[in-house]
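Input/output pair, single chain:
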Amino acid sequence: MIIAIGAVAIGLAFRSLLIEQAKAGLTATSDQIARVAEASNALGFYDPATTLDSLANKEQLDQWASVTQYIQIDTPEGYPIGKSSNMGDLRLGALPPDTDERFTFARDTDGTALLVLDRRFSRGGKPIVIAHIAQRLDIVDSETRRAQTILFYAALVACVAVVVVSLFIARSLVDPVVRLTGAMEEIGSEQLDRRLRWQRGDEIGKLAATFDAMLDRLQGAFARERQFISDASHELKTPLTVINANAQLIRRWGKRDERVQADSLNAIIDETTRLAEMVGGMLTLSKAASGDQIPKEPLALEPIVADVVANLTDRAAKKGLVLRADFNAGGHMILGDAPLIRQLLMNLVDNAIKFTESGEIVVAVSRTATTLRIEVSDTGIGIGDETADRLFDRFFRGDASHSRTVEGTGLGLAIVRSVAQVHGGTVSAAARPEGGSVFAVELPALEVPPGDPLLTEIQ
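Output:
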C-alpha cells in the first residue's frame, strides 16, 4: 500500500515537473516577443500600428511557433490580429482587463489539453498588444503515462520483492522458534539430562542457553528431592520398625513381664520423639524455603545468643563442657525472623555439644564492614576436608553409612544453611588447627544510626 501511494506521488511530481518546464518554455517565447516589440520602437518614436504589424506578421509568428506551440497576437482591446499557421481554426480566449499575465489551461480543437500564457505588453503604462502562447500537453500526458507505467511495474516488483523478503525473514525468525519449541517439548521430567546446546549468538541462542541453565537447576532440584525422599524413607524406616517391634513385644509379653512392657514403652516414646523432631525439622526447612514469605524485623543478636547459651548450658555441663558467649561489641543487628535465627543458633550449639567430649564451646559474634559473623567453635572430634562441604546436606552425618551412634535427625545443619540463605547469608565449616571445628554464619548487618530509638529499645 505504501509503495503504491509512493508511486502515485512520484507520478504526480513528475507531471508537475513537466508542467513547470512547459511554463519555462512559454515564458522564454514571451520574452522573445517582448524584445521584438521593443525593437520596433528603436527609432525613438512610438507607432502603435507599426508595432502591431511587426508582431502580427505570420512569418514572425511561425518562427516563434513549433509543432506543439501556438502563438496568437491580440490588440489591446482583445481582438485577434495574427496567429501562427499551425493553429487552424483554434482561437485562444481573451485576457481579462484587470490581469497583465496569467497561466491557464484550454483545449485544442481535437480535445488536447493546452497550457496557455496570456501576457499584456505595455509602453508608458499604456497597453500596446496582448500575446497568447499555448503549449500542447499531449507530450506531457504521454510522458506522464509512460512514467506511471514504469512506476507501476517498479512498485509491483518492489511489492513482490518485499513479500518474498518478508517471508524469508519471517521463516528465518519463526523456524528456529518452532524447532526450539519442538526440542523443548521432547524433554520431559525423565529426560532432564538432555540439553539443547544451540550455538547461536542471537536472541534465540540466548533463550536456548537460558533454557539449558533452567534444566540444570531443575535437574539439580529433582536430584535433591529424590535424594531427600530416599534419605527420609531410610531415616523413617528405622524408628517405625522399632516402634512396630516394641508394640508386638508389648502385645505378646507385656501382660506377663512388666519389665518388657516398660522397656518397650520407653523405646516407643524415644522413637516417636525422634520422629516428631524429624517432622519438625522438615517443617522448619519448608518454612525456610518459602523465602520472601517469611516476615522479618530488626533483631539484636546478643539477646538471642545469650538466651540460647543459657538454655543449653546445663546440657553442656552434663558432659563436662563449658559453654560461653563472646561479644566483641554491642549493637549487632540484623533484619530477620527471630524464631528461625534462634533455631539456627540452637542447631549449631547442639551439634557442637553432640560431637565434643571435653573442653569448651564458644559462641562468638563479630562484625565486618557489611556483615555480622557468628562463630560456634568447639574442641571436639573435628571435621575432614572431604566432608566439610557435605555437612549441611540433609541427613548427612559425617560418614557414608549415616551412623546412628550420635542422636539426631540429620536435619540440624541443613536447617542452619536454609535459614542462613533465606536471610541472605552463608554458612561454612572448617577444622581448627588446635583441634575441634568451627562453624561460621555470615548475615547482612542492619545499619542503625547511633542513638536511634530502635537500638536503645532493643538494648
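The chain has a mean pLDDT of 80. The radius of gyration is 53 Å.
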